[in-house]
Amino acid sequence: MPRGLAAEATALDDGDVLRAVRKEFALDDGTVYLDGNSLGALPRTVAGRLAEVVGDEWGRLRIRSWTESGWWEAPERVGDRVGRLVGAAPGQIVVGDSTSVNVFKAVVAAVRLAGPGRDEVLVDAATFPTDGYVAASAARMTGCRIREADARDIPGEAGPRTAVALVNHVDYRSGRLHDLAGTTAAVHAAGARVVWDLCHSAGALPVALDAHGVDLAVGCTYKYLNGGPGAPAYLYVRRDLQPRFDSPLPGWNSHTDPFAMDSAYAPADGAARGRVGTPEILSLLALDAALDVWDDVALTAVRTKSLALTDFFLRCVEAYAPEGRVESITPAAHAERGSQVSLRCADGAAGVMAELIRRGVVGDFRRPDVLRFGFTPLYTGFAEALRAARVLGEVLAG
Ligand SMILES: Cc1ncc(COP(=O)(O)O)c(C=O)c1O
Ligand SMILES: Nc1c(O)cccc1C(=O)C[C@H](N)C(=O)O
Predict the structure, then answer these.
(1) Beta strand 327-328 pairing with 340-344
(2) What is the ipTM of this complex?
(3) What's domain 48-294's architecture?
(4) Which of 235, 285, 289, 282 is nearest to 110 (CA)?
């Protein structure tokens, strides 16, 4: 069986249409990096571009770079590049701040868009914690109450009192992919708005924000978009909602004429209305450079490879892991799977992951018992999936 898997891995790598993209990343063949769903690898061109931004744009041009190097418009320009990856036409995404901050803007703005009598913020019960914390605070501030529901039940749970539902497209822990089209349609049918958190889906699979009429969305850029540690996040506001988008953080950068330094606030049109303060130029331009790797990549090819990788890894785990030691909590159905495999390991999961990392297989551990393996189709190969499962088997066999 294992010999058959090795031959299969070779054949799959040979047929991989994305294989050449790996060399665009700074990766070493000694490590199997399965943590791109926490921090994406470094695209090789980023360091040179950053050196240029620091040396030439900041160092030589200094303040002139806000206009001459295009710094001022960079949040919307880079937003449009992210838009191509999440199915958003230009003019609807602004890059800046953290996901947490953008969740706040989106949830409060969605409540402000809601009709009378809507005082409920519906939250995916298994949400990444920051979304839950921020939504709870946003609810308190807007006179709403929070109600939690399993993300799969949100279509049926949204009702006449729901102002907004906040849902994770892919669950960070289990890797479950939620139904963006169906949930959005059902929440709309209930008269409410939906905010999607795309942190674990953008760059991992095709996302079609415009096609499904999503109201608002947020996401980070340091996972599958490889923007780097602390890279700025983004906010999507559907074009027809932009004139009514009432930001709870109306900083001077979102003013229609920031340099008027007017004491009265007048919001900018378009995506810029989602801005707050001065953009994080260095990390924003690092992200801009990192996005170049996507120029010739089709998201459909990414999805095909992602599913093949995770299918193959699951089969390898079945072949190598001692019976009963791990159990996948990631859905087997392709329609319900993101780009990771999470294995429940009831016995000593933290120690197992530490040993895996020591042996060159980098995933992560999520308390209390989850071993999480992220598969980044741009740079992860099938032989690596096989090696990760083999080493996991060895570690579990102790
Ligand atoms: C689903 C999800 N939402 C939000 C965050 C937090 O984003 P940030 O730290 O950029 O606020 C993360 C990861 O850290 C995440 O996985
Ligand atoms: N944002 C992170 C960080 O600053 C340090 C360590 C990990 C992260 C993460 O992104 C965690 C990630 N969102 C998760 O899904 O677990």
Answers:
(1) antiparallel
(2) 0.97
(3) 3-Layer(aba) Sandwich (3.40)
(4) 235
DSSP state of 150: -
Please state the pTM of the whole predicted model.
0.98
Instruction: Answer whether residue 1 shows pLDDT above 90.
Output: no
Q: Name residues contacting ligand 2 (CB within 6 A).
A: 38, 172
- Tell me how far apart the alpha carbons of residues 200 and 220 are, in angstroms, rounded to a whole number: 8
All CATH 3.40.640.10 domain ranges in the chain, comma separated: 48-294
Active site positions, annotated: 128, 197, 222-223, 372
Q: At residue 324, what is the residue type?
A: G
Residue 380 · residue 308 · CB < 8 Å: no
CATH 3.90.1150.10 segments of the chain: 2-30+297-397
Written as six digits, the tokens of 393 are 């088997």
Cα distance between residue 135 and residue 158, in whole Å = 16
Q: Which CATH superfamily is domain 2-30+297-397 in?
A: Aspartate Aminotransferase, domain 1 (3.90.1150.10)
Question: Nearest C-alpha to atom 11 of ligand 2 is from which residue?
Answer: 38
